[in-house]
Amino acid sequence: MPQTFRLARQILCLLTLFVACLAAGPSHALSPVSIGREDIAIDLEPAVEIFRDRGRNFQVSTVPGADGIVRRIEVESTAATPSGDWAVFALSNNSDEQIDRIVVAPHFRLASSGFLWPDLGSQRIAAITPSEGFALDRQESPEADVFLVTLDPGAIITFVAELSSDRLPEIRLWEPNAYKDTVNAFTLYRGIVLGIAGLLAVFLTILFVVKGSPMFPATAALAWAVLAYICIDFDFWQKLVPIVPGQERIWRAGTEVALAFTLVVFLYAYLNLNRWHGILSAFTALWLVGLGALGVLAAFDPPMAAGIARMSMTATAGFGLLLILYLSAMRYDRAIMLIPTWLLIVVWIAAGWLTVTGRIDNDIIQPALGGGLVLIVLLIGFTVMQHAFAGGSFAGGLLSDMERRSLALAGTGDAIWDWDVARDRIFAGCDTEGLDGMPVAAMNGPARDWLPILHPDDRDRFKITLDTILEHRRGRIAQDFRVRDDNGHYHWMSLQARPVLGSNGEVVRCVGTLKDVTERKKAEERLLHDALHDQLTGLPNRELFIDRLDSISCLAATRPDVRPTLFMVDIDRFKQVNDEFGIATGDTILLTVGRRLKRVLKPQDSLARLSSDQFGVILMSESDVAAVGAFAETLRDAVRAPITFANQDIILTASIGLTGWTEGAGADEVLREAELAMYQAKRLGGDRIEPFRSAYKTHSSGRVELESDLRRAFGRNELSLAFQPIIKLSTGEIAGFEALMRWNHAKRGFVSPAEFIPLAESTGLIVQLGQFALDEAARRLADWQRLPGQSKLFCSVNISSRQLIRQDLLNDVRQILKRYHLVPETLKLELTESLVMDNPERSAKLLERLKEMGVGLSLDDFGTGYSSLAYLMRFPFDTLKIDQSFLRGEQVPQRSILVHSIVTMAHELGLAVVAEGVDNDTDAAQLRKLNCEYAQSFMYGHPLTAEEARRRLQERGGRRGSA
Ligand code: C2E
Ligand code: MG
Ligand code: MG
């Protein structure tokens, strides 16, 4: 009961104090403050007059005493270094009894202490001297200057207080008991808050020891900093450590710096900022170093250190708020959880600011702020603890080996496979994700239940593996086998297990993991297949083909009945198909050809795609020469049959090279032979079957060598032109020549243009070659035209595709015409149909320009392609050369009909016709009848050297002249 009463009294005291504070106005005329018996606490500040810089001796007039006399008193400072500031106030006792009061001037007051250059507290009053009697008795107090005043009834006394600091933030007159009660009331509150803060600090520190995360030491540090701050603020520290009056400020500034420091550390550690940006880490480190320096500064200039620390705290709070909001928007859960706490921090700092700047000024705010600080730490503690325990019991890092293993297993997603040998029970983790859709019932039971669900090919292996483990009592099971799922599909499962031995040394169980590895297996199979097969056709590729060829060669070496034949099938002009119809169509056609070839094979035979349009066949099913020949024909026919694509019939032909088995030849060599034979077939015009002859070897080997030789051929003058006469059929006279390139190779002799022209085309040398041909032919022609009666003589020059693509052809022709003063019509350019069709748009434009220049344009080798003449007439040709294949060799009735229609049609379209390869008189007669203008063939004349040609012209001219 007395306790309740005391508490009530204390609260009453506080309230009165509060009201007194509010009521006190700022009046400063020195007049005595009258004291009644009931006055518990009086704010003396309005009644105090401050005198500054008055030196060691201070003189002042007293207020009129009870007798109305004003006296003058002089007070001398007792301090070693007097401040020279003095405060004067007067008290009067109007009652009729003696009154005891105490004058209290607290050392520190937060309210109005200033934000940037704060007053951090100090001793305020050194001594108080009354106008009557002795100096007042100083009472013991760590937090305030307390002096006892005794006023006799009716006394009016003036007091002179010697100030020991330049500010006197508060001075009050208290009823001694009331003061004690107030102090005690605060002490209770402070005790509670301090207790909580201390506990929190200790608790968070322990948490840090248990949990390793940097978030905990950071929080603990903050808690300790708060505890330190409150200890100072609540004057607890002063009770523990004897503090010289001036040092208080250092401690206070020090704790403020510590608060600022730990706040930054906490924000950084809690939000894991090092994870986000290196720059942020560097910035934080810099900031912390700055705050560390501030700690040192606090010892020398506490107000400045405290001011900077406060700014840092404000900045941290503001920046932290922005950061937390941003990270929360990014759904960072730590940031979201910190929002309430941080808002409290911001509010606290705002309240602190309002207080120190004097906007809030009462006695409760200071302890309230202290309590608020503890509340913040409490909230932070909760937030942090949530993280500490949110991770579940495993997150802390203290795991038993067993737990670690089981977690690891759960992490792999594999199913557990546990075979209890004694009871013959297999446990295959039924609820494990790894076994979705598997016949889990059959998998959980005796080992024999597994057999029916295993792939028949894997059953024995499975059985033997288990038996072996039991028998050997060591080793591991590492097996892949197929298990049928509920839908009947097989899954590849990988079992990895190890036997566990019992005390008797027997295997008591086998434990391990089971994993579905179907995807991996499929990928492996696919890789293996891709490594050995062609992607497009799915046929074996070159590597596999050579491998097969190798083993067959080995077999053939020992068995006389094994006589393989190797075919190489290369599609003619396949590039053209690609260019004309597009790569996709080209692929479809290749696929078709591949299938057709496959169809003519027997199971013993192999087919492979060796390169883009090249197929290889190993024929094992036939060894008889005639049968092999027939087979080759079947291959040829298989390619030849029209392929219908987008309502169009595409007819392809193939060049086929073949070679038999030769003793001691390796796979590469045999393949090379077939290739050579195939090239020979190509050289001979394609659509041919060519068996390998050993002569090809020396002939064709060293394509690379030939290439470099061709490059040098210019310098060595090995290239020349031959001129084949073109005869006017009606008169039998030479109407012109076709210029044909000749290469007289130093070692090989004459190399056929059919061999080196494609080579030159593929290497780009053809441009030079073509220029040379044009120039040389024109030069010769100009020379011949000067012979009598030869002014109309013409000369044809073959143009290749590369030349056609180049822009310079027009220029070259123009210059040559100019250089040799040729009549443009007498220079003719020969282009083949396929060449024009390679790029019809461009060709049309180019030919148009050439035509404008006046040069002749001949369509060479007509009939070998598959374009219609009507189509070709979009190009401005003036001459058509019927290909030799129509006229050479045996007479076939259809052929003459064809020739007939070509010539008539050409004439209708206004073209002159040259018949190439006429080799008999009957044809010649027929052509003459058809009014075919010209013929060009060995029958009329082989290609001649320039000199021979000149001589021939002269002879004729001479003959004609003499005739
Ligand atoms: P082409 O333009 O069709 O030339 C006619 C080819 O037929 C020549 O072969 C010629 O010797 C041959 N020939 C002429 N009459 C007969 C005959 O009655 N029977 C037989 N069997 N053949 C006959 P050559 O000189 O071997 O030239 C082959 C091809 O090389 C030429 O065919 C032409 O396409 C190309 N060519 C030759 N010289 C050049 C050139 O300077 N530049 C370019 N780009 N290609 C050239
Ligand atoms: Mg020609
Ligand atoms: Mg020709």
Automatic annotation (TrEMBL):
Q: Which UniProt keywords apply?
A: Membrane, Signal, Transmembrane, Transmembrane helix
Signal sequence segment: 1-29
Annotated Gene3D superfamilies: 3.30.70.270, EAL domain, PAS domain
> Superkingdom of this entry's organism?
Bacteria
Q: Where is the EAL domain?
A: 703-957
| InterPro entries per UniProt | 7TMR_DISM_rcpt_extracell_dom1, 7TMR_DISM_rcpt_extracell_dom2, Biofilm_reg_signaling, EAL_dom, EAL_sf, GGDEF_dom, Nucleotide_cyclase, PAC
Domain PAC: from-to ranges: 477-529
Query: Do you know which SMART domains this protein is assigned to?
Result: EAL, GGDEF, PAC
GGDEF domain: from which residue to which, for each copy? 562-694
What sections of the protein cross the membrane?
A: 188-209, 221-238, 250-271, 278-300, 306-328, 335-356, 368-399
Q: Name one Pfam family in it.
A: 7TMR-DISM_7TM
Q: Which NCBIfam families match?
A: GGDEF, sensory_box
Kindly provide the name given to this protein in its UniProt entry: Diguanylate cyclase (GGDEF)-like protein
